[in-house]
Amino acid sequence: MKRVLMAVGLSVLASSAFAAGKPCEELKAEIAAKIEAKGASGFTLEVVDKGAAADGKVVGSCEAGSKEIVYRKG
């Protein structure tokens, strides 16, 4: 399961570089769909200001890089 989440995270990070200008809610929904498609459950995605992700893993960037999407288990 950890490998699946790591692979999803890395692919999301790679694709999010191209989607940095997208609205946060749209990108958040796309990332959630990709993670759920890999069989993961029990996670949350939260949009925070860039650099404020103290408790989670950054899996995307939106609104021209001013905000980040943070993945948290549980």
Question: How would you describe this protein?
Answer:
39% of the residues lie in helices and 27% in strands. The chain has 74 residues and is of the alpha+beta class. The chain has one domain. Strands 1-3-2 form a three-stranded antiparallel beta sheet. Strand 2 (57-62) and strand 3 form a beta hairpin. Helix 1 (2-16) packs antiparallel against helix 2. The longest helix is centred in the N-terminal third of the chain and has 15 residues, at 2-16. The chain is globular and about 30 Å long. The protein starts with a helix and ends with a strand. The mean pLDDT is 82.
What can be said about this structure in brief?
The protein has about 70 residues and is an alpha+beta fold. The chain has helices at about 1-15, 25-35, and strands at about 45-50, 55-60, 65-74.
Layout: helices, strands, pairs:
Elements: H1 2-16, H2 24-37, E1 43-49, E2 57-62, E3 67-73
Antiparallel strand pairs: 1-3, 2-3
Protein name: DUF1161 domain-containing protein
Organism: Pseudomonas kuykendallii
Signal peptide: 1-19
H/I helix tally: 2
Number of strands: 3
Number of domains: 1
List unreliable stretches of 5+ residues.
Answer: none
Specify the overall morphology.
Answer: globular
Key words describing this protein structure:
single chain, 74 residues, globular, three-stranded antiparallel β-sheet, alpha+beta
